[in-house]
Every structure is written in C-alpha cells, then in structure tokens.
User: Which sequence fits this backbone?
C-alpha cells in the first residue's frame, strides 16, 4: 500500500516535491512513496488533468501530496480539462471537505512581512476552509446568450446542514487542542447560505462544543481584522469561497507565501490531501529558486494528520525552524539559496 | 430641490452626520439639505427600514449621504425588514451600481496602520465595487428543509454583460484621470460569472480603453497582494461580494477605518449615494467618540461627484489633511478628541 502519493504537477511543483523526496529519504526512509503526473502534465500526456487511475491511486493511498498545478500553457484549454479542474476533481473525489490552512509566523521571519513585527510575531492561527461544496461545485452554473445579444452567467452557492456541520466539527475539535476559540465567518446579513451556516454552527456548538468559545464574524469584517489584529484568532471556520480569499490574505501576513502548507481532510481514517498554499509560479518555474518549505511543511502535516507519525512531524518542524534560524533563505525571503540548497539546509538541521 | 438628503440611520450614524451638518454650514451654506429616518430608526417608526417616501426623496435629491445602519436591537427582525435590507433596497432602488471605495493613506497617519510605514505611505488606490448585482441580489435564494430533516440553502450569483460593462467603464474612466492602470479581480478559474467578467472587461478594454493598462487578477491573489504590496494598485474593479471583502481589507491598510468614505454612482446625472465604510459601531454609539472623518469625507465625495462643487471638495479635503497634521485624533486614531471636537478641528482648518 502506498503511504504517500506524490503529485508534483506543474510549474515549480516538481522542483519543490523533489526536496520533499530528499527530506523523506532521510527522515522516513520506510515510507512507501508513489508518484503520478497531475494537472497540466497529465493533460498533456492523457488529455485529462486527473485520470481515473490517478484518482483511484489517491483514494487508496494513506496521504496525497500535491506540488502545484496550472500555468499559461493551459489557458486555452476547455475549463473542465484545465489543471485547476483536476485539482477540484481530486478534492471532490477524495471527499476532503476540511482544508486546514495555518497562518503561522516563524520566529526567524518575524520581520519578513509587510506588517509590523509586533502585529505578526508569534502569530499562529488556523483557517478551516470548507473545500468540497459552496459556489465551487453548486449547480446550476452556466453562461447563456440573451435575446439582446449580451450574455448572462450564473453560479450557485449551495450548502446543506450536513456539509456545514462536518467542517464546523473539525474546527471545534481543532480548537480544543489549541486555544479553544473558534470564529465562524459568513455573510449572514446578505446570503441565505450564510444564515444557515450561522444557525448550524450555533446549534452544533450548543449541543456538543459549548466548552469552546465561539464568535460569529461577518466575512468582510474578518478580512479587516486579519489585517488589523490577526493574533486575536485561534481557529476560523468558513466556506469554500471566503476561505479561499481569507486564507490567502492570512498567508501573506507572514510575508512568506513560500512557507505555508495546507492539509485537506475527509472522514476520519480516509486519506488526506496536502498541498503548499502557493501556486505553480510559472514566472520562476525551472529556475531552481522556488522555496520548498511550503511543500516540506505540507509533508510535515501529512506525517501528523494522515501517517500517524507526529514524532517525525515534530522533528521536521523543528528542523525547518532551525534551518531558518541559521539564516537559510531562498529569494522570496530575501536570500540567495536555491531550492535544492534550502532542502539541504533542512536535511542538515535534521 | 434637495441637494443633499441626509440619512443618519443608526448607532454612530446620527453622531457623525451631525458633524457633516456643521461642516456644510460653514463650507456650503447654500446647500439645500433634507433628512429622513432610515434603517433601524425607520423600522421602529414605520415598520420598514426604507419607506417608499424615503426612496422617492433619495431618487429626487442630487445626492444622498447615509450615516450607518443596523445594530443588535434588530437582529431578531425578519431579514427583509432588517436595517441592512433597507440599505440593499436603497442601493438597488437608486441604481447606484458603481461603488468607489478609496484606500488612501493620509500622510499624518502613515504610522497608524498595522502595516509597515514604507508599505502604506503614499498609498492611494480605488476599489470600484459592483453594487447592485451578483450574489447580493440573484434569484433563487432560499432555505429549504430536506426529507432527511436537514436543511439546504441556496444563493445565486448572476451577472450580465451589461452589468459588468457599465461598472468596468467607470473603472477605466477613473483610471484615465489617475495613474491609468486597472486591475480586474474575479475567480475565472472557478466561477462562470468570473469567466464572463473577464471576457467582458477584456472586450471593453480592447474596444474603447486600450490606452489604459489592464491586468486580470484572481480575487484570492488580489487579497494577498493588497496585504503584500498595495501600492502596486491604482484602480481595482470587482464584483459585489469580492468588493465587499477586498475593500474592507484595503480600508484597514490605512489603519483608520474611521477615515474612509465611499461613493456609489449610477448613470451620469443620477444621484449618488455616499456612505462611510464603517458600520454603526453599536459598542461606541452614544458616547460621542466616533471619528466623523469618514462621514465628512463622504460629503467631500458628494461635493465632487454629484454636486459639481469640486472646488469645495478640494478645500474640504485639504482641511481634513490639515486637521490631521495639526494632531487632531479621535480614540480610534490613538487620540482623545470627541466626535464634535474632531468636527470642530475640520471647521477650524477650513
Ligand atoms: C487553483 C484554485 C482552483 C484554488 C482554489 O480556488 O481553491 C487555489 O486558489 C487554492 O486556494 O487552492
Ligand atoms: C451592511 C452590509 C449589507 C454591507 C454589504 O455587505 O454590502 C456592508 O458590509 C458594506 O460593505 O457596505
């Protein structure tokens, strides 16, 4: 059985995943790794960004680690064959509904951000983004031509009680192991799905998690508070679209998009999907300058959440921190190390 | 004919609008002002947050200046009678489809933000938010009970070519008078309305505005770039929901939500709707400590965009800057002036 299926994907994906292989060979040589083409790479080979075989391999592995997908090469491709469609298909196919996106400020990088040091130093909060529902998957969605000659486009946001409850449960459970505080972000003042979201989270909290502190926050105010005073947050749970936007803003707080991993989890025991927050970065692909830390830390999350090896995860996390403290910096952090040298720095720190 | 209809609304709304009256009496004593209850106040008096008479008065004024609406008092009220529903009804009823939300860093406040001084000093960009379409108004929208006993909520995002084109036109025109650059933000990698948005903006640009620099940006990346390097932006045009969130993040950049105005414009010649970005702030309402600058600057935008008095607008803007430079600060800016004293400081600077 495969422990970890690697999907390097496109752009800088293969470069950063190569560093994960390097780290894994030292830290966990017993792990059974497998690898498949994915995204644009898979489209080029098979005419599909996600083949049925790859989805099967993902569902039967213990964990899946993706690099990145997409790039200008595939812009002209029909939308359901684009690399991004492969990613959405993988998330839905694996049923990984809870996306954990940490906003974490590494101590050695407390000055790397556009925010003042005191605002981000020690920052450690977690966004739990619903990942398999909402406007990303709702039907109907179409573009039609109007009698007038113009067009009309429709997208549909759909959420059920069950979808909201299961992701909120992940957030409450997480908070119990952290600082015991959950913010639930929606637009219940404008959207019916926001009203249901608030109602379901409130009910679940009352029934099973009244020991956790719960606050409801409007998504626009959440965006503002993330910029103003991010340290007020511990866990924030929100829908697919708000989570996409708020987690990108939060990621940037730490000044180091190249540092941030994510984990997408399904039902207990089912394989998780791990990916760096960053994209395929076509502008630097092939140059060997991408920061591999986000991929390495995604591997760290996989060890912790899917591979039952939190001992190794702890060691890896400490090694990343140590490498940073010793001054290891790729260009995105103002340094001059190559991707491979940054991977080496982590291996050395192990 | 009314020049400016004041809708003080709820919470701190009446307090900040009182300062606008004070400023207007000195700066433009000839303006014909009128005033009506709105939002929660109107609901309490008439059972409706926006009466037909008030909407008529708004449509026949030259400009409308709103304070703020809403508060905990009306949380239990049916959603279509809530203060926020009155605001959405006013926007739709006045057909003010282009919402201009400046992210502006006043020089004397360059240190007031959570961002580093060099990141925000001199910041001056404008978000143009579509305000009368999208998921705020699309049908169907409902919550239904499922056979299983759970519920299902649906919201619909709808955009037509005409709706996108008219707001993009406002953005291109604005850019021509500024630094000639427009970013158009959407999620065309995920949403059909995003695909149409990108197509319509691209076409309009090619047909009529090819002298303006246009860049397309995904909304999640926009959130990130707003935090990372906001000075790269001049004008950003986006839909109603993304605009709500991105403009709140942008507003916070300047560290002074209490400073930021907005203008909502319709077809040329039709009245504009002006409002501070901040809300009704129930926690400080009645205490006389709210910052009236956002309301005063909303009045400044009304003078400029609806009342054809840009000479007075220039004078007022300079007076605000001067008052700040002389050290006038309400508590949100770390000072101790009351709302009335802050208004007085502007009058003095006039
Ligand atoms: C690539 C894109 C489809 C994706 C998303 O919108 O979910 C990305 O932005 C992300 O956040 O993982
Ligand atoms: C009060 C609310 C309905 C409103 C909105 O969502 O548009 C507010 O957040 C705003 O940005 O003006």
Assistant:
């Amino acid at each position: 059985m495969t422990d970890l299926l690697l999907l390097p994907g496109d752009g800088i994906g293969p470069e950063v995943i190569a560093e994960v292989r390097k780290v894994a060979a030292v830290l966990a040589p017993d792990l059974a790794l497998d690898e498949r083409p994915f995204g644009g790479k898979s489209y080029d080979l098979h005419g599909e960004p996600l083949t049925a075989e790859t989805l099967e391999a993902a569902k039967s592995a213990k964990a899946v680690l993706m690099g990145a997908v997409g790039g200008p090469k595939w812009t002209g491709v029909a939308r359901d064959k684009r690399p991004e469609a492969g990613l959405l298909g993988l998330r839905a196919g694996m049923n990984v509904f809870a996306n954990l996106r940490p906003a974490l400020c590494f101590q050695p990088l407390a000055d790397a951000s556009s925010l003042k040091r005191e605002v981000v130093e020690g920052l450690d909060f977690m966004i739990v983004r619903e990942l398999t529902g909402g406007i990303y998957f709702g039907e109907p969605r179409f573009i039609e031509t109007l009698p007038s000659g113009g067009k009309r486009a429709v997208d549909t946001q759909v959420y059920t009680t069950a979808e909201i409850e299961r992701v909120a449960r992940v957030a409450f459970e997480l908070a119990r192991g952290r600082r015991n505080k959950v913010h639930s972000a929606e637009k219940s003042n404008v959207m019916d799905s926001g009203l249901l979201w608030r109602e379901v989270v409130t009910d679940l909290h009352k029934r099973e998690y009244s020991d956790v502190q719960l606050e409801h926050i409007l998504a626009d105010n959440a965006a503002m508070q993330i910029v103003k005073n991010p340290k007020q947050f511990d866990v924030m749970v929100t829908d697919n679209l708000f989570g996409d936007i708020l987690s990108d803003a939060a990621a940037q707080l730490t000044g180091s998009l190249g540092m941030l991993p994510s984990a997408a989890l399904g039902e207990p025991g089912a394989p998780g999907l791990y990916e760096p927050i960053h994209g395929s970065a076509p502008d630097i692909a092939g140059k060997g300058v991408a920061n591999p830390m986000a991929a390495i830390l995604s591997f760290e999350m996989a060890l912790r959440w899917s591979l039952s090896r939190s001992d190794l995860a702890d060691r890896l996390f400490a090694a990343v921190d140590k490498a940073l403290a010793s001054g290891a910096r790729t260009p995105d952090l103002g340094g001059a190390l190559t991707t491979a040298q940054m991977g080496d720095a982590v291996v050395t720190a192990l």
